[in-house]
Amino acid sequence: MLKLSRLTDYAVAALVRLGMADGVETSPGIAAGIGVPEPTVAKVLKALAGHGLVTSTRGARGGYRLAKPLAEIPVSEVIVAIDGPIALTSCVEGTGMICESQALCPVAGRWDPVNEAIRGALSHISLADMAAASIPPAFRIPAEPINEVA
Prior knowledge:
CATH topology: Arc Repressor Mutant, subunit A
Order of helices and strands: HHHEEHHH
Distance between the termini: 34 Å
Shape: elongated
Number of domains: 1
Largest sheet: 2 strands, antiparallel
Structural class: mainly alpha
Oligomer: single chain
CATH superfamily: Winged helix-like DNA-binding domain superfamily/Winged helix DNA-binding domain
Number of strands: 2
């Protein structure tokens, strides 16, 4: 199963919360608003700031705010900021990972198109889409017709 980390889930929630704020939000305020412990939110916000997704202001009126609108933040950027490069397997070209079975593997390097498709799909879904629960039509999975047995 492909599964994102819990921290990525928290990061998306924190960013959507910031997108609903009028001004700056404090780490404790965000934590209370999304139901996540403050130290965890602080860790997530630090990583997001390091990737330019949020900005921070120090001082009595300080806090965090989005660096750009939710509509301009693709889910892929959040995943990369928290979990690192998006890849289904570690044997992807350009990652520097070497598998001990690479010389014998019949699919070595064949995961690259799959990873590119996943990265492409995730880069076309913004946090505004997530907040509105509206996935762009091009990336919706069509409903399977129900085959009735006679």
